[in-house]
């Protein structure tokens, strides 16, 4: 038993704020919330919190942990007046440069920063076109080492290597989902990280890729994570090609 003493407890559903209360925790369970819980649990260890805020963890519904090492980057990048030029001049150059080591540290840094910022779970959307197979397990390792709950997937696309790249992205998504299923079945480690099926965006995934992704969703029983209508370019592309 462990007690957080004298906190400001924020509850989100239903919404309420409790000032000057204690929170008693046993294992992974909140046992009690209320005043002077040390009297109820005299043997418990405790920490005086001085009225600090305690609230449920935030869930980040979309992130790119592969971009963690890019902040403050001093690269020679051409002017980016619009969305598509930003992708081509910066992000699509950066993701092609990732290898196993850089991805691992990028993912680990982002996992630690998520926790520091109050996120207890993150839904990640990953891209590393020159390091596809095994990349999701590298990200999972960072989640597990940091103790962060979340999901990740590979951002399937044809923007670098056509149909072969599409196939490799879909296969990585399926393989990772199967590995997660196997780990859950064994039950010998904390269940923190889930899989879903990833795709970049409609303007970099042709009909053949969408058909592959549909099959991956059916095979794995997971949902699809894809950017849609991020920019006028994306919407204009959809109107032009699909009406």
Detail the topology: elements first, then pairings.
Blueprint: E1 2-12, E2 15-26, E3 29-34, H1 37-40, E4 45-48, E5 53-54, E6 58-63, H2 83-97, H3 100-116, E7 119-124, H4 135-146, E8 149-152, H5 162-186, E9 193-195, E10 197-199, H6 207-220, E11 224-226, H7 232-242
Parallel strand pairs: 1-4, 1-5, 6-7, 7-8, 8-9, 10-11
Antiparallel strand pairs: 1-2, 2-3
Structure description:
It is a single chain. With 243 residues, the protein is an alpha/beta fold. Helix content is 40%, strand content 25%. The protein contains 7 helices and 11 strands. The strands form 3 sheets. Strands 1, 2, 3, 4 and 5 form a 5-stranded mixed sheet that branches. A hairpin with a 2-residue loop joins strand 1 and strand 2. Helix 3 runs parallel beside helix 4 and helix 5 runs parallel beside helix 6. The longest helix has 25 residues. It is elongated.
Content-based structural category: alpha/beta
Number of strands: 11
N-to-C SSE series?
Answer: EEEHEEEHHEHEHEEHEH
Q: How large, in whole angstroms, is the Cα Rg?
A: 22 Å
The dominant shape is: elongated
> Count the helices. How many?
7
Low-confidence stretches: none
Q: Ends: how far apart? A: 61 Å
Helix content: 40-55%
Mean pLDDT: 94
For the sheet with most strands, the description reads: 5 strands, mixed
Measured by DSSP, the beta-strand proportion falls in 15-25%
